Amino acid sequence: MLLTLAFFTWLMAKITLEYIPYNTDVGFLRIKQQYIDIDHWRIAFFIHVYASLWVLFAGFTQFSKKLQRNNPSLHRTLGYVYVLDVLLITGPAGLIMGFYANGGTLSRIAFVLLAVLWIFFTAMALVKAKQKNFIAHRNYMIRSYALTISALTLRAWKYAITNTMTVPPMDVYRVVAWAGWVINLLAAEIIIYRFRQKRAKKISLLKREIG
Predict the structure, then answer these.
(1) Which of 68, 119, 173, 210 could hold 103 in an S-S bridge, CB 3.0 to 4.6 Å?
(2) Is 52 or 6 the better-scoring residue by pLDDT?
(3) Any idea where the domains of the chain sit in the sequence?
(4) Are residues 185 and 146 in contact, defined by beta-carbon separation less than 8 angstroms?
(5) What's the CA gap between 155 and 177, in Å, rounded?
(6) CA 151, CA 8: separation in Å to the nearest integer?
(7) Of 50, 196, 184, 19, nearest to 118 (Cα)?
(8) Rounded to whole angstroms, how far apart are CA atoms 100 and 57?
(9) In this prediction, what percent of the chain has a pLDDT beyond 70?
(10) Are the C-beta atoms of residues 31 and 102 closer than 8 Å to each other?
């Protein structure tokens, strides 16, 4: 799992470098030229792009059991970096961008909902950590990070669709606007369910041993 997350982090860093220091006619921005002169959209975009690297890296480290066990203070610090970035910077910027998504109303609903859920799951992860409910904290972090990597899975779905079938570009965008994060969230719920099953088995075995 960590190798997969490391790959996603590296790939996102590679994509982000295209926009540094301030390139407005590369990558994704080539299809957003109608919005590039809207100040709040442009500011939100570059904030979202630059800050997302910190979210990916900090989130990636949160799933290292070795780090949690050997350096819990660093785990907490990087966790706060992740949470504060999503709640105060990247999440709100993504929400603003969602209202200007290509593909019409259907796509805009998808991206606005993505941003709202991303902020909500991340906030709940913080709340559960403060309450020392670490199982719920882990579950919400899994959901949050599943949405974090949606920027990459969206591109993967777009590549898969455009290279296997002939579909109008805007229709592709409408599909990946939902597939890019809904499938991630379903996968997160499967992972959470498996953790729950493993924990239930351990508790059951422990009760048998005690009994």
Answers:
(1) 173
(2) 52
(3) 2-210
(4) yes
(5) 10
(6) 10
(7) 184
(8) 27
(9) 91
(10) yes
DSSP assignment string, the chain:
-HHHHHHHHHHHHHHHGGGTTT-SSSGGGGG-TTTTT-HHHHHHHHHHHHHHHHHHHHHHHTT-HHHHHH-HHHHHHHHHHHHHIIIIIIHHHHHHHHTT-TTHHHHHHHHHHHHHHHHHHHHHHHHHHHTT-HHHHHHHHHHHHHHHTHHHHHHHHHHHHHTTS---HHHHHHHHHHHHHHHHHHHHHHHHHHHHHHHHHHHHHHHHHH-
Tokens of 114: 């993505």
What burial class does residue 41 get, using C-beta atoms within 10 Å of its C-beta: 0-12 exposed, 13-18 middle, 19+ buried?
Answer: middle
Q: Is the separation of the CB atoms in 45 and 34 below 8 Å?
A: no
Return all residues near 101 (Cβ < 8 A) that are at least 6 apart: 107, 108, 110, 111, 177
Q: Is 90 exceeded by the pLDDT of residue 162?
A: no
Question: Which amino acid belongs to residue 209?
Answer: E
pLDDT of the residue at 147: 94
CB count within 10 Å of CB 205 equals 10
Q: What is the pLDDT of residue 14?
A: 74
- Taking only the tens place, the pLDDT of each residue in 27-44 is 667 667 777 878 888 888
Structure tokens at 2: 């960590």
